[in-house]
Amino acid sequence: MKIVVCIKQVPATTADKRYEADLTLDRASVDTVINPLDEYAIEQALRLLDDGNVDQVVYLSMGPEPAGEALRRALAMGGDEAYLVTDGALSGADEWATARVLASALDRLSPDVALMGMASDDAKGSLVPGAVAAMRNVPLLSYGAEVWLQDGKAKIRRLNAAGYDIIEAPTPLVVSVTDQVGEPRYASLKGIMAAKRKPLETWTLSDIGLSADELHGAALTRMTSAEPPRTKPPTERIDNVAPDEAATRIADWLAARKLI
Amino acid sequence: MSNDIFFLAEFASGTPQRSALELAAGAVGLTQQSGGQAVALAYGAGASGGAAGLGAFGASRVVVLADDDRPAITVAPAAAQAAAGCLVLLAPATPNGRDIAAALVGRLNLPAFGPVTALSLDGSTLKVEQATLQGSVITVSQPADGAATPSVVLVLANTFTPIEGGSGSAEVSEAASVADDPLALARVVESRATEQAAVNLEEASVIVAGGRGVGGAEGFATLEELARALGGAVGASRAAADAGWVPYQLQIGQTGKVVKPALYLGCGISGAIQHRVGMQTAENVVAINKDPDAPIGEFADLFVVGDLFAIVPKLTEEIKRRKGGGG
Ligand SMILES: Cc1cc2nc3c(=O)[nH]c(=O)nc-3n(C[C@H](O)[C@H](O)[C@H](O)COP(=O)(O)OP(=O)(O)OC[C@H]3O[C@@H](n4cnc5c(N)ncnc54)[C@H](O)[C@@H]3O)c2cc1C
Ligand SMILES: Nc1ncnc2c1ncn2[C@@H]1O[C@H](COP(=O)(O)O)[C@@H](O)[C@H]1O
Q1: pLDDT tens, A69-91?
Q2: CB–CB of B298 and A250 under 8 A?
Q3: What is the DSSP letter of B103?
Q4: ipTM over 0.90
Q5: Distance (Å) from the C-alpha of residue A13 to the closest C-alpha of chain B?
Q6: Residue of A nearest to B310 (CA)
């Protein structure tokens, strides 16, 4: 059993983010981290490795050259090897293009399970896992709070409106996980040292059999403007008043907005 | 390419989810510009029986993809076949809606847009407005030149208001069958109801949310009363759900529900970024927090500095009184 964990390097959650003049995110001037939700995917993969359910954990990322750092950090947590797909033609990639690239890279790595986070910090889609599954013609089990692998099948526990479902599908497949799978481990000093010797290979688009033309300029969507929002009124504060008065003033505020 | 606007309509026990009614209204709005029809792609238990009823909410046609309890992703192949070539497809920004939308993007190579604040057509070009980077930027985007249709658009609950009082009946058909498809292989092998009642927090127009400051399940009972007085629902931060005071179904945020109520009233919640991304598009944000420097005070519309245990019961009383004692 082989798992490929797809991880993305993103600006730190707390970083001050802004758009450049060309409407791409300015990624040069901010601290970067492994997308926090992908750390849960790494943790899940390493737990399955620790328990002997899988033999190999491989990491895959698409991003600019420095994203290799995220892969090293992942290797320091555990696992065997890593691949970075990097290419000038990928700048500004949208979720479709990202999925296209990951799907082609996964075709070469042929994992039993492609494991992903439930969302990247800097996108709002949660679309990559499902798009990759559809492109690779494999099943999708998404938003897993717990994952099991057994007899050529994967199972997840997924919240529903009143409780949870256990959902099953055969391998090979794509699985995405939530932050309920367990807190990500820290890399040990030994892990960090070991990671330096683990294989990290860089692929260009042609290495995975794709051309820039097929990727439609790396995006099927185009941003035409980015403006600050209409300034909203500043926060009103109610401070230093007795509870009775606070309650009356909140009720007045709500009534003025027809909320009661 | 047709000028029809499609939308996903999820059913449970024969009843359309509120998202289906809201998306119907969004689709009708776009057809007024495109000249096409609003077409529902219905799935979920009881979808066949309830399908025609979507006509009253503006759908001209309904294509039933499946009438069963299987995971939503299993209808993606049928959805791809039915929706290919329409102009725009609206999907609810819920886990199920995102799964189907994602599979369509992968199958048909489509442009996709995350949750939108507004959308319109300029000729046949879709323009979507989104609030990004914690609402600090409003962006306008469109499909790239030459991109295939439909454009797939995710829509948060409470973005559109259902059309009330309609009486039309939609023309119902069954989706053409699709050959065996790996996406259709996922199966629910076990289901557990752990909560008293199913909750669809996304659909609430008023949410009283509690965090670590609420201190326990008893504290949440106090919030429950306030929510009832306001005609709303109770939500929570991850800290409160992690502590086991409320089920995870109530968690708001990056890894919980993304909500867009008319009123979000946060009690004992600090306003961490992962919580904020789940409620920042609420129309009105009120926060009660005893820490005058809590981050939520920086983006709330009304920030009340004080002890929630002292204020919330008084507020509940006051609201009941103003509503005529009934609540
Ligand atoms: C990958 C990841 C995903 C996450 N996803 C989510 C998510 O989806 N949703 C989410 O909410 N969090 C999420 N978090 C956690 C998030 O970072 C915060 O830790 C969490 O939101 C804090 O919850 P809180 O505001 O209830 O608690 P705290 O931050 O501890 O704040 C409690 C607040 O209560 C106030 N308070 C205490 N007593 C009273 C009182 N008597 N009266 C009034 N105020 C009082 C305090 O002043 C304080 O501001 C995520 C974190 C990570 C790393
Ligand atoms: N550039 C990328 N490289 C590797 N994995 C990615 C990339 N973008 C997204 N993913 C994976 O897809 C998941 C969902 O991302 P998204 O659809 O962008 O919200 C992430 O948690 C990652 O596991």
Answers
A1: 999 999 999 999 999 999 999 99
A2: no
A3: H
A4: yes
A5: 8
A6: A243
